[in-house]
Amino acid sequence: xxxxxxxxxxxxxxxxxxxxxxxxxxxxxxxxxxxxxxxxxxxxxxxxxxxxxxxxxxxxxxxxxxxxxxxxxxxxxxxxxxxxxxxxxxxxxxxxxxxxxxxxxxxxxxxxxxxxxxxxxxxxxxxxxxxxxxxxxxxxxxxxxxxxxxxxxxxxxxxxxxxxxxxxxxxxxxxxxxxxxxxxxxxxxxxxxxxxxxxxxxxxxxxxxxxxxxxxxxxxxxxxxxxxxxxxxxxxxxxxxxxxxxxxxxxxxxxxxxxxxxxxxxxxxxxxxxxxxxxxxxxxxxxxxxxxxxxx
Length: 296
Fold this sequence. Notes:
single chain, TIM Barrel, 8-stranded parallel β-barrel, two-stranded antiparallel sheet, 10 strands, 16% strand
């Protein structure tokens, strides 16, 4: 079975997260973009109570759409152990939301690169919290997919496991059919490592993928991006672009994924310059899928 394509409203992230844009309105817009599913961020819901989740589930049913996965951002590296326990409970709630919306995959992370956090403590805190969350995910039949991530849109600090070696050290210590990798090629580039060589290392564990094609603002460098650490949200020097029009070699990505029979969701983070851009991204990925999965 070839992978399926879903859409994620990166273009409306702030407006959906703070309530300026009704989430149900986005759901109905998403139905016009040509994707096969919709990825949800837990922060787009006013709460995870039935009164706020059920209307979204109905809108999905009415428009004939399916939920590809839940995008969730736990802060498992927080210095306060009580807060880390709260983050595990939040992850469990996101797992429940995944089940309620009929999906199987829930995104997870390490947490923020808090000031003074050592490598050893960050890895230990992440593994402890992931294992506690994974016990619950297994009981609920949900796969946690850890993303090689840059930064949640509501965070102050970048991802602790943004460096490739830290990410791999964490992932390689968890062996469960309910845990895998969410691959994001542009996040690898932002992290300063090669997206294709990274995929070669993790492709047997990839269960979901984010498709985006980021770039830096004209004249900006990765050093400028690092200087933005400590500012809430995404750095202004970072640009999200149309898939296939940036720095990522999607032919190499699809070739490697097809070789291992990847059949999960590919979710598009796009639309920053209008939803027509996202429609073209869907079409671009459909063409790559048709090419490489015919040959596989």
